[in-house]
Design brief:
single chain, about 450 residues, alpha+beta, five-stranded mixed β-sheet, five-stranded antiparallel β-sheet, 6 helices, about 15% helix, about 35% strand, globular, Quinoprotein_ADH-like_sf, WD40/YVTN_repeat-like_dom_sf, WD40 repeat domain-containing protein
Length: about 450
């Protein structure tokens, strides 16, 4: 227990000294492990007792935010994640979507997709709630945004700009054969991803109740396919005759290429599936780990990275889109056209810049690697990464986590700060705490 007579200065000094010391030890450990192998790296450094200082840290963060000046806060109380872990059980929350706008503002969906949640807009040190929108997503070319509203999905040119299209929610009856007694959705499904197509005329709607494309004329179900539905419903009628016929996907995910030619979809029980613009299956790629989990296209649409996972680990493979259509591999099959790009991460988010994928994993790391699988750098945030976005000039990256963090990172600065854990020349210039039990979001 901290002596009540200790000064604020001594507590602050202890936090800073211990944080810099811990980061140094972890960085040395990681450097040794990457160079010589993890068996040679020795024991993983243990935290050095900073948890007892967190209450003092939070008081100082609150004070700085009340004053509206956090300039000196980071210098005195440098960033750390591990001592914050005890606070996360009551305070942490998922932030599944984040985007950085051309003017530097950051927008985020706070609260897991299956919760009520809200949408927030960050402008420097101010945060405001966006009324009437429960969820959002952006197109791969960043020209359009889609929003979940009470009466359907709306698409605008730019953030909250001119509306260019609007669609009804899926009904739940899409692709269901007439012989099955399936009820329409009682309420609109809650998406985990909402991705406008690059022309703003359609939206990829990814949810646990199905993956759909919404357009002016119709709602098309991409997963489960009609054949999948027949197999599932026939099995349920035999094995679970008293159960209502419904769809419940795990790990449903999707991506659209920036040029709009390709759609990648998958879920726990599927392979990695790639469709053309008319929803025809043109690629069926077997997963190298247990479950298909994530997909991302390169910014030039010439490559796709596909992640499959098992527990907190995973494997990411790459495929040049020049091999489409008519490309197929089996699960766990090695293929010269689907090389392993990253072996280890369960991927939850990703972006691409010139010859580099940057992914966020289940263990709180950002990991960057080349299109040839060469390891570039890694940077530790802490807690399961929720989403990642790049600024248009690719100089800033914003990422969110399930700990209620939103981190704004300046890329390619040449050097990380002493307290940062990573191998690249990037630095986190701002971390927001969107914590449940705080009166307002806090900038750190």
């Amino acid at each position: 227990m901290i002596n009540i007579f200790r000064t604020k200065k001594s507590v602050q000094k202890e936090w800073k000294v211990k944080t810099l010391d811990f980061a140094k030890k972890v960085n040395l450990y990681v450097d040794k492990g990457l160079k010589d192998g993890w068996e040679e790296a020795g024991a993983v450094p243990e935290d050095n007792g900073r948890e007892k200082l967190v209450s003092h840290l939070l008081k100082e963060i609150r004070k700085a935010n009340e004053k509206g000046d956090v300039t000196k806060l980071r210098e005195d109380w440098p960033l750390a994640h591990s001592p914050m872990i005890p606070e996360l059980e009551s305070n942490g929350q998922s932030i599944p979507v984040v985007a950085i706008l051309d003017d530097g503002r950051v927008v985020a969906r706070v609260g897991a997709f299956h919760e009520e949640g809200y949408v927030a807009e960050i402008d420097d040190l101010s945060v405001k709630l966006i009324e009437g929108i429960s969820y959002f997503g952006s197109s791969p070319n960043k020209k359009f945004f889609a929003y979940c509203k009470d009466n359907g999905v709306s698409v605008t040119e730019g953030w909250l700009g001119r509306e260019v299209s609007s669609f009804s929610y899926p009904t739940g009856l899409e692709s269901v054969p007439d012989k099955f007694d399936v009820k329409a959705f009682d309420a609109p499904p809650r998406p985990s991803q909402l991705i406008p197509f690059p022309d703003g005329k359609k939206v990829l709607f990814v949810s646990s109740q199905g993956i759909f494309v919404l357009s002016n004329n119709e709602s098309v179900r991409l997963l489960p396919t009609k054949e999948d539905l027949v197999r599932q419903f026939e099995w349920m009628q035999t094995e679970l005759p008293d159960r209502e016929l419904t769809v419940d996907l795990s790990m449903a995910h999707g991506a659209i290429s920036p040029d709009g030619r390709f759609i990648a979809i998958g879920e726990q029980n599927s392979t990695h599936r790639i469709l053309d613009a008319n929803y025809n299956l043109i690629g069926d790629i077997g997963n190298l780990s247990e479950y298909a989990h994530y997909a991302i296209f390169s910014k030039h649409s010439d490559m796709i990275a596909l992640n499959s996972c098992h527990f907190y680990n995973g494997v990411t493979i790459g495929l040049s889109t020049s091999h489409l259509p008519d490309f197929k591999t089996e699960p766990y099959e090695d293929n010269e056209y689907t090389p392993i790009l990253e072996d280890g991460a369960r991927v939850y988010a990703g972006v691409h810049r010139d010859n580099e994928f940057i992914i966020g994993d289940a263990n709180g790391h950002l990991r960057a690697f080349g299109e040839n699988g060469e390891r570039h750098w890694q940077h530790y945030i802490g807690a399961n990464i929720g989403d990642i976005d790049l600024s248009s000039d690719e100089s800033k990256l914003v990422c969110s986590t399930c700990a209620g963090y939103i981190s704004i990172i300046e890329l390619d600065t040449g050097k990380r700060k002493e307290y940062e854990i990573g191998t690249g020349g990037h630095t986190e210039c701002r971390r927001w705490l969107f914590w449940k039990n705080e009166d307002k979001p806090l900038a750190w």
